[in-house]
Amino acid sequence: MNLRDLEYLVALSQELHFRKAAEKCFVSQPTLSGQLRKLEEELGVILIERTSRSVLLTPAGLAVTAQAKRILAETKELTDIARTYRDPMSGELHLGLIPTVGPYLLPHIIPSLKLHFPELQLYLHEAQTHTLLKQLADGELDCLMLAELDHMESFASVPLYHEPMLLALPSDHAWAKRQSVSLSELKGEKLLMLEDGHCLRDQAMGYCFAAGIGEDTHFKATSLETLRNMVAAGSGLTLMPELAITAQHLDGNICYIRVIDPEPSRAISLLYRHHSVRRPCFNEIAKRVQDSLSFLVRPSA
């Protein structure tokens, strides 16, 4: 048994397809399949149910895969420990971001990170919050940048910035010329929202429910850009994170105004596993993110 065999098993558990798992591991399908058969022979149990149509893990396969993930994560931790003492700002770093943060944050921070940490190889992964948290817990990702929620206490975090949500409305709306609107004035309105699974939806809905604001259930968007296009078409109002509003979005079809009393907002943080040896690296990255955004958004308290 070797670590590579465990990597093959984990890849197959994720893809449930021999060819795709082989491609993910950069080996041929016969190589991956053959090594997994040898692993089964060595352990003396069947790990994989093979049929002409599907690949399934047996109960033994599921248990062994879970342990394999832990072993691979611990092995990576050993490598990280050595790198931390040698050069904390070098090597691979797998960073996860949510879809309502990644596209709007990365253009501001990537140039600075590349300039100050040229030996750091960033790998970026975008997914919804629940997926990223599982990948972080399993050791597949090193850290995350996302909106921090109450149920994330099992991870350590570094505050990055505080991001208000602005009201996006069609340019011909009665409020379009206003500088701000109080949250209570939106009572009775129905706002366009993202679909279930986006933490921004949960945060926005929290403010809306408290103020008596409803959701337009006729439409749920998969992205902020879809929401933006719906507002531009005159289909309703929505809340938009401040970083998602740039000069190119001020095209005359949509107006963005401040919401006050209270101001809807979210706190964006960098999350990592407790006791991670790469904490010095995460702290340095957090500082660069804060510096890059100092003129755009408020720092987190």
TrEMBL record:
Keyword Transcription: yes
GO molecular function, one term: DNA binding
InterPro entries: LysR_HTH_N (IPR000847), LysR_subst-bd (IPR005119), WH-like_DNA-bd_sf (IPR036388), WH_DNA-bd_sf (IPR036390)
One cellular-component annotation, GO: protein-DNA complex
Pfam families: HTH_1, LysR_substrate
Name of this chain's protein: DNA-binding transcriptional regulator OxyR
Domain HTH lysR-type: residue ranges: 1-58
UniProt source species: Oceanisphaera avium
Record keywords: Activator, DNA-binding, Transcription, Transcription regulation
Gene3D superfamilies named in the record: Periplasmic binding protein-like II, Winged helix-like DNA-binding domain superfamily/Winged helix DNA-binding domain
NCBIfam families hit by this protein: PRK11151.1 (NF008361)
Sequence similarity: Belongs to the LysR transcriptional regulatory family.
